[in-house]
Amino acid sequence: MSADGIDEPASRELIDYCAGLPGVVVGTSVLLRDRHGGLVVVEPNYKPGLDLPGGMAEPGEAPHQAAGREVREELGLDVPVGRLLAVCTTSAEVYGRVILDFLFDGPTLTDEQVTELAPADAELTAVYVLTPDEALPRIPPRTRRRVSVALEAHASGACLYVVDGREYRPPKQRVWHEDQAVPDGVPVLRAAGWLFDPDGRVLLVGDPDGGYALPGGGAEPQDVDALATLAREVAEEANAVLGRVTHVGYLADPDGGNVRSRSAARIAALGPLAPDPATGWSWSRVLVPPRRAVELLGGGYDTKLPQALAAQRIAHERLGIPILDDDSRVDIPAEGVVYDPE
After folding, report:
1. C-alpha dihedral over 162, 165, 167, 169, to 10 degrees?
2. What's the CA gap between 65 and 63, in Å, rounded?
3. Which of 167, 199, 220 corresponds to the end of one domain?
């Protein structure tokens, strides 16, 4: 940059060097919704299933410019392109070239805009406004992972980086503090639970792409403590009602920050399957023994196993949950289940 703050032109040598570097394919998508939370999806005639409005960037076009152009071409809408929700990388092993998909937020469409939605491009067969639960099963798996990420990022306010369908997280060795209280004054950023049925199985929630997670999530301003965060999150994700709850421990970064609490609880009831208000889709629900839960959760068996065994031991000692160590699995029906009182 020159002394007066104006960027100097790139040298011819740098331009030639950049021109010879390996290229990537840049794709763009825009998350458009109606005022009821419905998702705008298009049906291309050149590939199966549904997709978000969007397409490939043209030479010399920035991703946000490509996103706006694609919405204009496909839907005839000239709308502002909002914040970046996610960058999804597909490795070269899949298509022969690295593909970077930039997912942008879009505005909430007016009722008039929704009424007038129709294909403006010969490559589209139809345009729909569907709930996430209606749309996701009709979207091919690889594309569905991008749409799931966009919905998560929209709900959380985050910007995500995803590699081959899974959020990338820098390797970090969190320290497990078994059966220890969170130090006074240290905020709990996330809370999750090992939630047990009367037979000793624990509840996992499944996303639309077949991944599993412990019920739980991030703290919100209205949560008075970690247990309030846990109760709210398990109700939103799994429509679960908890009985007795006990503290199991917490995870923290090596410096003691970024604390995540873990609790064990009896499940009193699992209500009818309902969309998560954050994302709009309905998580599936499955009950499995703790060791099998660790296998399904992924992301480091050796690090999660001590946590699972601690939850099983503490739930047995304090909540009277039997210790189950088999390979059984129970899929919760959509109508839910109510357990006998303790």
Report:
1. -80
2. 5
3. 167
pLDDT at 117 over 50: yes
Residue 21 pLDDT grade (very low, low, confident, very high; cuts 50, 70, 90): low
CA–CA dist 187, 206 (Å, integer): 28
Using a 10 angstrom Cβ sphere, with 0-12 exposed, 13-18 middle and 19 or more buried, the burial of residue 170 is: exposed
Q: How many Å apart are CA 289 and CA 325, to the nearest integer?
A: 6
Q: Are residues 112 and 195 in the same domain?
A: no
Which domain covers residue 189, as residue numbers? 175-338
* CATH assignment of the domain containing 247: 3.90.79.10
- Mean pLDDT, to the nearest integer, of 4-9? 57
Q: What is the largest CA-CA distance in the chain?
A: 76
- From the list 56, 50, 53, 49, the residue with the least C-alpha distance to 31 is 53
Boundary-marking domain end, from 145, 167, 189: 167
What mean pLDDT, rounded, does the chain reach? 90
* pLDDT > 50? residue 2: no
Structure tokens at 209: 């792409």
pLDDT (tens digit per residue) in 149-172: 899 899 888 899 988 877 887 766
Could you report how far apart the first and last alpha carbons of the chain are, in Å?
Answer: 71
| 98 CB neighbour count, 10 Å cutoff | 16
pLDDT of residue 210: 79
HSE-CB of 71 using CA atoms within 13 angstroms: 26
**Which pLDDT band holds residue 1 (cuts at 50, 70, 90)?**
very low
In whole angstroms, what is the distance from residue 320 CA to residue 108 CA?
49
Nearest to 152 by CA among 86, 233, 220, 235: 86
